[in-house]
Amino acid sequence: KAGVTQTPRYLIKTRGQQVTLSCSPISGHRSVSWYQQTPGQGLQFLFEYFSETQRNKGNFPGRFSGRQFSNSRSEMNVSTLELGDSALYLCASSLVGQGVDEQYFGPGTRLTVT
Amino acid sequence: AQSVAQPEDQVNVAEGNPLTVKCTYSVSGNPYLFWYVQYPNRGLQFLLKYITGDNLVKGSYGFEAEFNKSQTSFHLKKPSALVSDSALYFCAVRDQAGTALIFGKGTTLSVSS
C-alpha cells in the first residue's frame, strides 16, 4: 500500500505571498491531519479533516486554512506569508482519526519564507 | 488539558546496551498514547501505541513501551540498541477533542558504536 504523499517537497516563497500544500492519504484513510514542525515550537497541530469536514482546529491564525476533497485528499493554504511560517509541514492520515487509531505521516513539505 | 513531557533532550547509549526514552503524561479520561520516530529530513514513523490493559506494548524495530498508570509514564525501551536507532523520538497523546495528537518536545537518541 502506498504511503502518505505530500507535494511539493520543498518550497521557497516571499513574505506576503500565499502557498498551497497538497496531501494524498493512504488509500482507505478518511482522516487527514496537518502539523507544523519548527525547531522552536516543535510539532504543533493545525487542523484535522474527516469526510470533507473540519473536525478539529489548533491554535493558529486564520491565515492558515485547509480543505478535504471527496477522495480524502487534502490541501492546506497559508495566505500572507510571514517569515515565522518557515517550517516543515507534515500531513498525517488515519482510518478514522480517533482513539487508538494511529496516524501515518508523509515526508513533509519544507517551506522557506524569505 | 492533555499533555506529555519528555524530560531528556538527549539520551546517549552504547551499541548493544539497553535504552530507555522517558515520557510522562497528563490526561483526563483514557490515555491514548503513541511513540513516533523521526529520521533526518523525513516524516514521522509510527512505532507503537498503548492499548488499554497491556502494560508492556511491543512495536516496530524491536521497540517496546512500558505503561505505568501510577507513575503516569509511558517509557520507550529496547533491550539492545543499534547505531541505526539514532534518531529523534516523540511521545504523543490524543487531545481532549480526540482527533489531534499532542507531541512532546522530542528526545534525540544517539547510539555510539
Unreliable stretches of chain A, pLDDT < 50, 5 or more residues? none
Shape of chain B: globular
Q: Counting H and I runs of at least 4 residues, what is the number of helices of chain A? A: 0
Instruction: Let me know the number of strands of chain B.
Output: 12
Order of helices and strands of chain A: EEEEEEEEEEE
Biggest beta sheet summary of chain A:
7 strands, mixed
Structural class of chain B: mainly beta
Number of helices of chain B: 0
Radius of gyration of chain A: 13 Å
The N- and C-terminal alpha carbons of chain A lie at a distance of: 37 Å
Question: In angstroms, what is the radius of gyration of chain B?
Answer: 13 Å
Q: Give helix % range of chain A.
A: under 10%
Description:
- The complex is a heterodimer of chains A (114) and B (113).
- Chain A has no helices and eleven strands.
- By secondary structure, chain A is mostly beta strands.
- With 113 residues, chain B is an all-beta fold.
- Chain B has no helices and twelve strands.
- In chain B, a hairpin with a 5-residue loop joins strand 5 (33-38) and strand 6.
- Chain B is globular, with a radius of gyration of 13 Å.
- The chains are: A mainly beta (114), B mainly beta (113).
- The interface between A and B is medium-sized, with 25 and 25 residues.
How would you concisely characterize the structure shown here?
Chain A has no helices and eleven strands. Chain A is mainly beta and 114 residues long.
List the helices and strands and how they pair.
The complex is a heterodimer of chains A (114) and B (113).
Chain A: E1 5-7, E2 10-13, E3 19-24, E4 31-38, E5 42-50, E6 53-57, E7 64-68, E8 74-78, E9 87-94, E10 104-105, E11 109-113
Parallel strand pairs in A: 2-11
Antiparallel strand pairs in A: 1-3, 3-8, 4-5, 4-9, 5-6, 7-8, 9-10, 9-11
Chain B: E1 3-5, E2 10-14, E3 19-21, E4 24-26, E5 33-38, E6 44-49, E7 56-58, E8 64-68, E9 73-78, E10 87-94, E11 101-103, E12 107-112
Parallel strand pairs in B: 2-12
Antiparallel strand pairs in B: 1-4, 3-9, 5-6, 5-10, 7-8, 8-9, 10-11, 10-12
